Amino acid sequence: MGSKFKFNKYINIGAESAEDDKEYLSSCYIDTGMLDVLKNTNHPGRIVAGRTGTGKTALLIKLEESKENVVWIEPDELSLQYISNSTIINYLEKNNVNLDIFYKLLWKHVFVIELIKQKYDIKNESDQENFFKKIFGKYFNDKRKKEAFDYLNKWGEKFWESTEYRIKEVINKLENDIQAKSSASLKDLMTNTNFSGEASSRKKVTGEEKGEILYKAQQIVNSVQIKKLSKVIKTLADDEFSDRQKSYYIIIDRLDERWIDDSIRYKLIRALIEAIKDLKKINTAKIIISLRRDLIYTVFRKTRSPGFQEEKYQSLFINIEWSKYELLDVIDKRLAELVKHKYTTKKVTWSDFFPKGVNKIPIDNYLVERSLYRPRDIINFVNICIKRSSGRSTMLARDIKDAEAEYSELRFRAIGDEWIEDYPNLLNCLSFFLQKRKERFSLTEINKNFIEDFATEIISSTENSNCLIYQICQNVWDNSISFDDARRKFVIIFYMVGAIGIRKDNRGVSWSFKEDNILQSSEITGSERVEIAPMFFRVLGISPE
């Protein structure tokens, strides 16, 4: 490394988020094989699944860097809040009109036009006119294909406009069709209905009239031109996107964020997955999205219909998982890059910088075990270690332990931020449930008295009743849930967020960030042993055994 090399508190091995990690992402990317899968338009994998910090966005950025014809659509550009703000959509949803087929059409419409816009470089009205002249000339003698493309004329007037414009265009057409086929009083009912579904119109609407509008609305939804759009997709697949030398990609990231009310959000995501599945027919194009794995399970659970078979969707998912050695490669490449740029061209490895162990634990195990097997965690840990080792060329065991105190606090707050929409009270709950316990403890230690004390503490210390944990505590307080059921629910939540692992009998410890499944209530018998994630030892005041 050379005698001139010394760590200082202003250098690091990269940022935690891919968007801010441009300096290291390109040169230090660890290819585990997923990038080639994503590039291959014939491979069914097109939904990047993993929890926050596993590298979903980094993978998508690398795809964009390595391929041409890539369009990146931000969720904000989709203007899906426009759906949630639609009085008519809300009214139909509240009255159980099935809009699934419409949501599916909406996604397909957006993607089909985006692909056409991309392939034919449509930037203005003149470009669009030239496209249709070419298409209608090409299929002049093919009535079926000509009619299919005529659909695009009716449902998409301005291809060159933003994705947001197209979303609003399709929604407005549905609303106009419904209103045009409704009597005046029914129009009044829908356009003057608030979110609760109570009519604010001065004219009283009868139950028969309400039934009529819902019946007509369902008919209109069912008659949306999904068949014509399917013909467009087939023609695109067979004739327009048949050149194997050219691939096209559409990427949507950050769908995990709560951009719309959950009641509609889950249906839209399910429709999105269905649309992506159907668009596989265009085998030189790929629609790629990223989703948190727990959100995928929630979507399927909330939108499950009779006959639903989850295994039919499994081929779509690319599950991001990291091994111990891949995570060590992450810091190995980044430390080598740091030293190469600033100090020496001599080849170094990560082990040149670290002590052999901490507290008699080999250093490789010590670092990786204090992550949730995510690059974001281990990069953050090493950056803090570098700061604590300022002025030296190598790190001491005490530097690692000093860094761990800060790191543990930061990752504890980070897990609270990661799950704040689902569990706003998570950090208070984890602190009460786990603080100053042993590293490993039997589930039998969580007895009825503890659960009652826990419920009392959470209810009295927070006003956020939207948190599921709070609601379970309220059920405990009301005696509307059994002690066993409450304990199971708490354990499943804390397991899912990664704070604890579960050991059954003599088998190994199961961790949510290593397992490709969600722990089921029926799997918790009460005889299990719980292990607290080493990442949180210091912040929770836990002394390792």
Task: Provide structural commentary.
The chain is of the alpha/beta class and 545 residues long. The chain is 52% helix and 7% strand. The protein contains 24 helices and eleven strands. The strands form three sheets. The chain has a five-stranded parallel β-sheet with strand order 2-3-4-1-5, sandwiched between helices. A four-stranded antiparallel β-sheet has the order 8-11-9-10, with helices on one face. A two-stranded antiparallel ribbon has the order 6-7. Helix 14 crosses helix 15, helix 18 packs across helix 19 (397-418) and helix 22 runs antiparallel to helix 23.
Briefly characterize the structure:
With 545 residues, the protein is α/β, with parallel strands linked by helices. The chain has helices at 22-28, 34-39, 56-66, 75-78, 81-84, 87-94, 100-119, 125-138, 143-155, 163-180, 184-191, 207-222, 226-240, 262-278, 293-303, 324-342, 363-369, 375-388, 397-418, 426-434, 448-461, 468-477, 483-496, 537-540; strands at 47-49, 70-73, 248-252, 285-291, 317-319, 357-358, 361-362, 440-442, 500-503, 509-510, 529-532. The model is unreliable at 193-202 (pLDDT under 50).
**What proportion of the residues form beta strands (DSSP E)?**
5-15%
- Poorly predicted ranges: 193-202
Question: What would the average pLDDT be, to the nearest integer?
Answer: 88
Summarize the main sheet: 5 strands, parallel
